[in-house]
């Protein structure tokens, strides 16, 4: 009985969990840890959304099983959102399904559409479910780059030419978690044409659709004419409305993929708690000022972090979107590796970040920084980091305190 279970053998230790365990132990010991590791929004959901949750929860009829595909009103609300935001028409009955966050949706769709031995193209580095949802389902992963440059397209073509069996699914996620890279509509136009030519399904993760900066709204792959022939897209209320723990997301697009997801979910779950779904309707249908307000707040945090960390001696590229910065290790400490550097920051600077290697081997040399603490705490993190870098002999700017 000591033999490890089959699927457990396919799952490596979750690298990020090492840092999370250290953070938890430090906090339990009374240390003040500035947590920039997990992408857990620190902002509250809109008041009217919480009010709707409480209102519907008072109804005796609201506590039975819900629909695994989502209540009709919520599917219609999501279709309306796509119409407003992207100019995309969706049929709420056949092209929209409610998921328990985009993570569950991706994993359930992987279960629905892959067979053992299928080859799936997934970005590296990427959010772990992009790879491991399919690994758990029995598929094999072939990595492609995350950076959407010409090397990306060459990698796709190499994968189709030299992989047996030929890949049948491609996962994309922009704005990227963890790299915060973005794409324009021309990228999606080229991708849809490529997918049709190669008979590949495209799964797009658009969880950070509303966290964009500098006046550049993020596009949807479904804006491309004919994209629904090959693509399905995942979105979430987690970051847009600061509703991460509510676990409400959506899959929309290709009818065949949506039908497969609905069918698997009908076996796996009874859908999210009805009052939560009703409150999600209120989020999508109600005032949208919170979305702009949150975007502006994250934008300010981004600017404060980049400026303060730079003065501390750690230059970080300003992300164009998402709630993350993808930060190269300080050059003098690059040999340390992202996991050890993350542990050192936690121990000596009291700052938690996520090691890049936890998002794939190509994430080595980077850490992911989540902008989930206020500006004052970000400046404090910069001061702590400056002292740590000094202690390691890293030259920091002579003038100006972080």
List the helices and strands and how they pair.
Blueprint: H1 6-9, H2 15-28, E1 34-35, H3 47-57, H4 72-86, E2 96-99, H5 101-113, E3 119-124, H6 128-136, E4 140-145, H7 150-162, E5 169-173, H8 185-198, E6 201-205, E7 231-236, E8 249-253, H9 255-268, H10 274-285, H11 289-311, E9 324-328, H12 338-349, E10 351-352, E11 354-355, E12 366-370, H13 375-391
Parallel strand pairs: 1-10, 3-4, 3-5, 5-6, 6-7
Antiparallel strand pairs: 2-8, 7-8, 9-12, 11-12
Structure notes:
- The chain is of the alpha/beta class and 402 residues long.
- The protein has 13 helices and twelve strands.
- The strands form three sheets. Strands 2-8-7-6-5-3-4 form a seven-stranded mixed sheet, with helices on both faces. Strands 9-12-11 form a three-stranded antiparallel sheet. The chain has a two-stranded parallel ribbon with strand order 1-10.
- Strand 5 (169-173), helix 8 (185-198) and strand 6 (201-205) form a beta-alpha-beta unit.
- Helix 2 packs parallel to helix 12, helix 4 runs parallel beside helix 10 (274-285) and helix 5 packs parallel to helix 6.
- It is globular, with a radius of gyration of 21 Å.
- The mean pLDDT is 94.
